[in-house]
Write a structure and sequence with these properties.
heterodimer; A: alpha/beta; 2 domains; five-stranded mixed beta sheet; three-stranded parallel beta sheet; B: six-stranded parallel beta sheet; 17 helices; 37% helix
Chain lengths: 252, 474
């Protein structure tokens, strides 16, 4: 019987879950890791919930950094926010291989778990990058910039990293409407993550209704820059799919 | 000419001047990595970032705009030529700076691409452009990407200023030969385009050497494994960089910026004159080799003006030809090909049915199939369906064990094309006869859909009650 270790969708909880599965001594082939909510339970599996524990998470992170390498840790932890159901379990399998063979394991396409990990990692990287492109800020009161995104995965952190470098002396907020989290950046200081309540979400939704005169100018530019003789909506749709357009002002 | 005397709003100016700028194809923000700075706005990412895709499917990365669409020249192919009865407008430097900054803060754009019609004289126009860029970098503290068009005929000192203020500088060559150029652009001189190009190239190399870099621009990493690429016999270090352009005053010292760190680029119009693909691609190769250009852009000519020397208005732009030229251009810069390998005087144009790499491969079946587990970098790169990233992954993976077809698929290798040219551990994917006609027909069939996509512009998709009819739940 397989034991499924489940945890909340949170950085510390995920590493605690890895710790719990590893130290359960059930054998790697008899355990599986999954992030909650578990949508489809199986009669022949045993489900164990793991609470977030900072000490356990830290011990896992310390072991990866010291026994494998910091670069390996950076690659592993980067895509923890990916929406794929098997992300955490794949990372667990990659860690087993990593501890056995070292950091070069990520080039070994001979292992199915590695190819799956690279697939998730690339897709997650692509999704995060697309929000660097298609995210749109609304200016509130001439000073504060607010952006809303609706990603499949939790990408606010990598997106915020980019904007922290790009606009270090501006006040801005990036809101993930799906996962209800936000990156808040006060001018000339570091950004921080904030988990939003429903009330706060409702208030933040109003920011998109603010009248921003440059949005109108942008729409003018967007329409005139297209060459009518080269019209190619299929190509536009391929590069800018509809699910990414929900907050792109030029399409609203 | 319809000279507008009343004051235009910013929106009207934006409409007129972006409409006039849209035929310039370069809109990339690539080539330079620069971190942000406290108190400044913006950074730069060497891979480039696209911010939107317009209705024609082209990416919008930069605010591509003209300073003014007034022009003293009367080039036959140009929408802004003196004799056209267009609405004309000009931005003031401050208007343009505010627009760039406010668009940038909202993440609409990655930077500015500033060009201009020639107002009064090249010198006056270039001075206005430099003034705008100077304001943007100093008063508005903009640290993002700037691509500037150099106006041919402007004094060296102004071009040097522009290079110091911008990230990329470009001069449009427009046509690969002096005859076409002089017949379609009366009043302009072909050598007056090439001379500043050479000077800018020398100045970039000189500045790079001065800060301890090599004189040559950085190229895709795969080039270091290619012995015979077009860049391998380029020896800019040996040239004496005497023809440097120097900005007067203390600009270089005050700005502390490298000279055009993202290099130089140019653009050629295709379909307006009678050049063959071989002439175009050979010119590009020569430009990469002698001027170390970072990019050459190709623009399918859209007939805008009625003139006996040009295709009639309504003629569809040669989009597939443009696509083939871009494919060939990539083969030169990333795959170690030379123009003479792709085309010859007996076959001066690309095959429309099949891409240039497949076309080359079926004509050289004697070197195929190659063994994935043993072939060197340069040979792997010549296989259709395998690109520089694929080669990197194959070479990394085969250090630890043999590579099979399933792994190749996971690495992103396009087996649809590669299957005819490779073996894994001595076996091909299917039993495939190594015959030119069989492989060509199969490749033409798989290219058909892609080619149709470029020529056909209708689009179909599933309608959705929520998106299309704005239906809400509850």
């Amino acid at each position: 019987m397989i034991t499924v270790f489940t945890c909340e969708n949170d950085f510390t909880a995920m590493f605690s879950c890895i710790h719990a599965a590893w130290s359960s001594r059930l054998g790697h082939e008899h355990v599986r890791l999954q992030v909650e909510p578990v949508e489809q339970m199986n009669l022949f599996e045993n489900y164990v919930h793991v609470d977030a524990d900072e000490k356990k998470a830290e011990s896992v992170i310390y072991a990866i950094n010291c026994k494998i390498s910091p670069a390996f840790y950076a690659q592993i932890s980067y895509c923890l926010g990916a929406y794929e159901q098997d992300t955490l379990d794949t990372i667990y399998r990659v860690l087993i291989l990593g501890f056995a063979y070292g950091e070069h394991i990520l080039s070994m396409y001979q292992y199915k778990d590695i190819t799956r990990f690279l697939e998730i990692s690339r897709r997650y990287g692509g999704e995060a990058h697309s929000f660097l492109e298609f995210l749109r800020f609304h200016c509130i009161g001439g000073k504060l910039f607010v952006a809303h995104i609706e990603p499949k995965s939790r990408v606010v952190m990598p997106v915020a990293e980019h904007f922290a470098d790009r606009m270090p002396s501006e006040y801005w907020i990036i809101v993930d409407d799906i996962h209800k989290e936000a990156a808040i950046h006060p001018a000339d200081s570091a950004y921080y993550m904030y988990y939003l309540t429903d009330e706060e979400m409702d208030k933040l939704k109003l920011t998109e209704k603010e009248n921003d005169s440059y949005t109108f100018l942008w729409k003018t530019y967007f329409d005139t820059i297209a060459i009518k003789e080269r019209k190619n909506p299929k190509c536009q749709l391929y590069h800018f799919p509809i699910w990414k357009r929900s907050h792109a002002v030029e399409f609203l | 000419m319809n000279e507008l005397t009343q004051a235009l709003s910013i929106n009207e100016k934006l409409e007129i001047l972006s409409d006039a700028a849209k035929y310039d194809v370069a809109c990339t923000s690539s080539g330079v990595d620069r971190r942000g700075k406290q108190g400044f706005l913006g950074n730069s990412c060497s891979a480039g970032i696209c911010h939107a895709f317009s209705e024609d499917g082209r990416c919008i990365s930069l605010l591509k705009i003209l300073m003014s669409n007034h022009c003293i020249y009367d080039c036959k192919y140009c929408i802004n030529r003196r004799s056209n009865d267009n609405r004309r407008a000009s931005f003031t430097p401050d208007e343009l700076c505010t627009l760039t900054i406010e668009f940038y803060k909202r993440n609409y754009i990655e930077g500015l691409f500033l060009s201009s019609g020639v107002v009064q004289s090249p010198e006056y126009t270039m001075e206005r452009i430099c003034e705008t860029l100077f304001l943007l970098r100093t008063k508005y503290r903009f640290n993002g990407y700037i691509h500037v068009k150099a106006i041919p005929g402007a004094p060296d000192e102004l071009l040097a200023r522009a290079g110091l203020l911008a990230d990329r500088i470009s001069i449009n060559l427009e046509f690969p030969s002096a005859e076409s150029f002089e017949s379609l652009a009366p009043g302009k001189n072909f050598n007056k385009i090439l001379q500043p190009m050479a000077q800018i190239s020398d100045t970039i190399a000189g500045h790079r050497l001065a800060i301890g870099k090599s004189a040559r621009m950085e190229r895709c990493g795969i080039n270091k494994y290619l012995e015979n690429s077009i860049f391998s016999d380029l020896k800019l270090e040996d040239k004496s960089h005497t023809d440097l352009m120097i900005a007067g005053g203390s600009l270089a010292r005050d700005l502390r910026r490298p000279f055009a760190p993202a290099g130089q680029s140019t653009q050629m119009i295709i379909g307006a004159s009678n050049e063959t693909d071989l002439e175009l691609i050979s010119t590009s190769q020569q430009l990469y080799k002698s001027f170390d250009l970072k990019r050459v852009f190709y623009s399918a000519y859209i007939p805008l003006n009625e003139d006996s020397a040009l295709p009639a208005p309504g003629t569809p732009p040669p989009l597939l030809r443009e696509h083939r030229l871009y494919q060939a251009d990539w083969l030169l810069r990333y795959y170690g090909f030379h123009a003479e390998e792709l085309l010859s005087s007996s076959r001066p144009n690309f095959n429309e049915k099949i891409d240039p790499k497949c076309d080359w491969a079926v004509r050289h079946l004697d070197i195929f199939p190659v063994e994935i587990n043993k072939a060197p970098h340069d040979l792997l790169l010549r296989v259709p369906g395998i690109g520089p990233k694929g080669v990197q992954r194959i070479v990394e993976a085969r250090k630890y064990g043999s590579v099979n077809f399933e792994m190749l698929k996971k690495m992103g290798i396009v087996l649809k094309r590669a299957q005819y040219f490779i073996t894994c551990q001595g076996k091909m994917l299917y039993k495939i006869p190594i015959e030119e006609s069989f492989i060509t027909n199969s490749l033409v069939d798989s290219n058909r859909k892609e080619n149709f996509g470029i020529l056909d512009n209708t689009s179909y998709r599933q309608m959705n009650l929520f998106d299309d009819f704005r239906l809400a739940i509850g």
